Amino acid sequence: MIEKKVFEAINFRRSVRIFKKTEINKEKVKQCIQNGTLAPNSSNLQLWEFIHVTNKEIQKKITKACLNQNAAKTANQLVIIVVRKDLWRQRAKENANFLKEQSKEGLMSDKSFKMALNYYTKLIPFTYTDFFGVFGVLKSFTAQITGLFRPMYRQLSSSDKRIISHKSAALAAQNFMISMSAIGYDTCPMEGFDSLMVKKILKIPSKAEINMIIGCGIRDKKGIYGKRYRVPFENVYKAI
Length: 240
Fold this sequence. Notes:
The chain is of the alpha+beta class. The protein is about 50% helix and about 10% strand.
């Protein structure tokens, strides 16, 4: 199979609501998920998990939680993008350990190493540590006051961190979907689902959140509901 070029893959990708009863290769889907993990993300914390569902019984249960949407019902496989903001301590520690290894191998200057290590051992804990949202509000208020006098990073509340984590997960999801498109596989990202039911089915921790559920397969000729519409480019593009 000849892989499509980037612009071809982007143009080929559509949200497919009905898939053929055609099996797709599990390992190829897994490789596309791995491509998803290469997406840019906030502070390289990688606060995400990818659940690859190929078990048909589990898929039936998730389809019910997806309100029996055709994109879930007819999908050959499902991929669930999960936000794991609760793992920030572990991910920060892993980044710090990676930096230490890079420093030992002489791949970083002492100055760069100290700055990066302080980022993961001091700044990230300050930014992400919270107590029922109280610390986040206080930090956000302090940032707004400081911002009156100099440029200041202001996204310090608990809800800000939640948004940031979801943005990073969405970038990974897009990497995954474009990778699928490149090899001729189709996808449909879904946001209409009972998140609590999905978490119970997959035994996902209560503090984790579902970013989206992606149906995967080969498009049926009836699977795309119409021509693609986009707002005129000149309405959304501004050159300064």
